[in-house]
Write a structure and sequence with these properties.
This protein is an alpha+beta fold. The protein is built from three helices and eight strands, in the order βαβαββαββββ. It binds zinc ion. The site of zinc ion has 8 residues, from loops.
Length: about 110
């Protein structure tokens, strides 16, 4: 499954909206604040990107808060185990799945 990273700044409204959107859609992501994280900032400068939010989804880059692109590129959703509530990433491009919880070994059906 692809790793999702979002590059943000504290003052950027669209960044907040993008993060809320990811949570609502059960997408797991890592946030990097380019004002605090010089290495993250460098990654954007290297690609000639000057605005945020920027999402890195696997090897794809989405500049700006583009919901449709984000949903099309992300290949997982977060599922919660009905027994122990542990959260895990599950592929969303394989239809209905039987998922085994890594914590309690409970097996449950999951539909994207
Ligand atoms: Zn469990």
């Amino acid at each position: 499954m692809k790793k999702v990273t979002i590059f943000t700044t504290q003052s950027c409204g669209y960044c907040q909206m993008a993060k809320t959107f990811m949570t609502q859609n059960n997408i797991q992501y890592t946030e990097r604040d380019i004002q605090k994280d010089a290495k993250a900032r460098e990654q954007l400068v290297k690609r000639n990107i000057s605005g945020v939010p920027v999402l890195m989804i696997g090897s794809d880059i989405v500049v700006g808060f583009d919901k449709e692109k984000i949903l099309a590129l992300v290949d997982h959703r977060i599922a919660a185990c009905p027994q122990c509530q542990s959260k895990m990433r599950v592929p969303n491009n394989k239809g209905k799945l039987s998922v085994t919880c890594p914590s309690c070994k409970n097996v449950f059906e999951w539909t994207p």
